[in-house]
């Protein structure tokens, strides 16, 4: 089983959906720890309640972004993860950090990337008059919410949607999509090549399975 560390900044509902999925005996990955940049993140207590080790690194405890990341990288070198899943981790990782785990960092973003990268994605999707919305799991590269796409999920936009109602419809799909994407990457069915493209094999090569 691939060793996975999940990074969170908030409530951790995606982290919990990954954790649920990894409980299946045949799931090809296990969560070995949860890391947060927010000691008060609600997801940390939820992870501990499930018996998962948690580590918080408050940004304010370090003089620079580089020192903050160095502390996290130090913990990761103990934990020896094969994969890192960003799950509502609201901090941009530096190029050095990403290079240290090239092709091994996944992120979920609540929009159909490359549309609406960054913050306030649901407001912006509604303002644009989108009729569908969704979420994207992708490999992390240097740009924010960039990087080759692993999987996407789509939901309809309803006439009376607010950013909140749309966010919660998308979140439901996130909880299905992220475990599926992690499974495919852990099995080696989807990977990022050196040129930064997604390579799909096995059942993931079939467009119908995307
Ligand atoms: C999720 O909707 C996730 O896609 C989003 O934050 C939420 C975290 O919820 N991530 C981003 O916006 C990253 N740019 P959770 O803590 O309950 O998983």
From TrEMBL:
Keywords: Purine biosynthesis, Transferase
Residues the UniProt record annotates as site (Raises pKa of active site His): 145
Pathway in which this enzyme or protein is active: Purine metabolism; IMP biosynthesis via de novo pathway; N(2)-formyl-N(1)-(5-phospho-D-ribosyl)glycinamide from N(1)-(5-phospho-D-ribosyl)glycinamide (10-formyl THF route): step 1/1
Positions that bind N(1)-(5-phospho-beta-D-ribosyl)glycinamide: 12-14
InterPro entries associated with the record: Formyl_transf_N, Formyl_transf_N_sf, GART, GART_AS
Family statement: Belongs to the GART family.
This protein's name: Phosphoribosylglycinamide formyltransferase
Organism this protein belongs to: Rhizobium halophytocola
């Amino acid at each position: 089983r691939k060793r996975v560390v999940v990074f969170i900044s908030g409530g951790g509902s995606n982290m919990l959906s990954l954790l649920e999925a990894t409980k299946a005996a045949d799931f090809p990955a296990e969560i070995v720890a949860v890391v947060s940049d927010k000691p008060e993140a609600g997801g940390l207590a939820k992870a501990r309640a499930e018996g998962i080790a948690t580590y918080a690194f408050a940004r304010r405890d370090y003089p620079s972004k580089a020192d903050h990341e160095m502390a996290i990288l130090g913990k990761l070198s103990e934990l020896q993860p094969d994969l890192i899943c960003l799950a509502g981790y609201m901090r941009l990782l530096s190029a050095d950090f990403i290079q240290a785990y090239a092709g091994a960092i996944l992120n979920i973003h609540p929009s159909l990337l490359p549309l609406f990268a960054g913050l306030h994605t649901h407001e912006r999707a509604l303002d644009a008059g989108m009729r569908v919305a969704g979420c994207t799991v992708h490999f992390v590269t240097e740009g924010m919410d960039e990087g080759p796409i692993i999987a996407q999920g789509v939901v309809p936009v309803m006439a009376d949607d607010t950013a909140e109602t749309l966010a919660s419809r998308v979140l439901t799909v996130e909880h299905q999509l992220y475990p599926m994407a992690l499974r495919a990457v852990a099995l080696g069915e989807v990977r990022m090549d050196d040129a930064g493209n997604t390579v799909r094999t096995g059942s993931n090569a079939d467009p119908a399975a995307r």
